[in-house]
Design a protein that fits this description.
UDP N-Acetylglucosamine Acyltransferase, domain 1, alpha/beta, seven-stranded mixed β-sheet
Length: about 180
């Protein structure tokens, strides 16, 4: 592992145009292209996901098209369903629990960019992990921002932008997402 990749995975500032990271991204691009364009049966899709993702539970369904940065930092728990158009930018770990339902066009984003204009222009970014607990439901178009954890049994309404951690067992909606009630 090179210094830039170590910095990325440690949540430190790094430059994403590193050749080592580029090679990993190329590997991901080839696997995503095959996953998204080839007519595959369920076993072939599962095998491709097993090569692409860091870990994959049993009976996971991810509908194409699916896009990610690297794949290796993504862990998906058993019986999770991800609908069409998911974008998982995994410069840091993305951990998805078991029995999670993810609606169409959901984005799980770990990279964040420098606010300083010169450093941002130079390309510096860092990544913070995203964690989705067991039995969470993310409605269509939800965006989960870097560093966010969503507690188990929580529901996030369609179109919400989650900028802060959400506790277990709540309904959250809006932009930014806010808890509107507890769930039983």
């Amino acid at each position: 592992m090179g210094e830039n990749e170590r910095r990325m995975l440690a949540g430190e500032w790094y430059l994403p145009d590193d050749p080592e990271l580029g090679a990993q991204s190329l590997r991901r691009a080839e696997l995503c292209r095959a996953y998204n364009s080839d007519p595959l049966d369920a076993d072939q899709r599962t095998a491709l996901l097993g090569r692409l993702l860091g870990s994959l539970g049993e009976r996971v369904v991810i509908r194409a098209p699916f896009h990610c940065d690297y794949g290796a930092q993504i862990s998906v728990g058993a019986r999770t369903f991800v609908n069409f158009g998911a974008v998982f930018l995994d410069a840091a770990a993305i951990t998805i629990g078991e029995d999670v339902q993810i609606g169409p066009n959901v984005q799980l984003l770990t990279p964040t960019h420098e606010l300083d204009t010169e450093r941002r222009r130079a390309g510096w970014e860092r990544a913070l992990p995203v964690t989705i607990g067991d039995n969470v439901w993310l409605g269509g178009g939800v965006i989960v921002c870097p560093g966010v954890t969503i507690g188990e049994n929580t529901v996030v309404g369609a179109g919400a932008v989650v900028t802060r951690d959400l506790p277990a067992g709540v309904l959250a909606v809006g932009n930014p997402a806010r808890v509107v009630r507890e769930l039983t």
